[in-house]
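To: structure desk
From: M.T.
Subject: fold request, one chain
Message: Could you run this one when you get a chance? Sequence is below, nothing fancy, just the single chain.
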Amino acid sequence: MSDATLIALTSALTVMAAARAAYVYLFDVLPARRELRERMSAAPTAAAEGRPQDILRARTLSTIPTLNALLQRVSVTAQLETLLTQAGLSLTVSNVLYLQAALTIGAFLLIQLELPMSVPLALASAVAVGVGLPILHLRRRRMQRFKVFSDQFPGALDMIRSSIQAGHSLNYALEVAVEELPDPIGAELRVVLEEIRLGLSARDALDNLTRRVPISELRFFAIAVVLTRQVGGNLSEVLGSLSNSLRDRAMLRQKVRALSSQGRASATMLIALPYLMCGVMSFMNPGYMGPLLHTPVGRKFLLAAVGLQVLGLVLVRKICNPKELQVA
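Reply: Done. Structure tokens follow.
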């Protein structure tokens, strides 16, 4: 890439970033502050006049009313919003869409400059990169949050069991757990407690929790609470048995990861080795990788090799992470 092309690409990306920052400030930050000031000034008036206040959180996908109304009609945005909630991020769906659009444009310009290919193929590759990278990042954040939740959950069960053994109700036990436990489990239990206080039944609140955090350990807890409330029984003993079972399950999961660590390390090295060798060969002999990157046959072989590597990575993950031991 020549210096002029690099300067032009850097300038274009800088202008796009500055325009995006100005757009966010003008259309996201300022309207949000204005709406907050209006709500804070209107809340005492509503209470003084005896009018009911809105205590439910509105489902806002964008701070722009027109875009928010448009996104409300698209079913895919609901899945994206669920992914953001499960990842524990406070971003809106529109922020993710803006990021995907910016990444798509940048990837398209980079592909056109570095890999001379047809416009439809370059556009399809740019869309795959721009749309796929944020989704992969969100799914990774989601899995990391679920793993932390799963690691914290046995301790939370012990705390709830101790409170119930002391003679307290389930609501008080949840309140103690919310005050003592860190996020993400403290934040999720706080939502459950708030829903119960607003009049939702414990079963519905726990069902909502299992939808936000769809892990098997949490489903066991919800079933135990619902059954003991409907059929009867000693909830503290059930939670104690469940806590011990979850600890044994976590130990088995760690044992499987330890036994499969050599295979996972070998797979990582084998996947990274071709790219490292390509980089070394391109540095030592700049024209050596030209036939692979700049000819139709070479690009086909390159795509086939990447596809086979992705398939191998998926198979290794399936083997090293059995379905019965997956966090979610």
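Reply (cont.): The radius of gyration is 26 Å. Let me know if you need anything else for the meeting.
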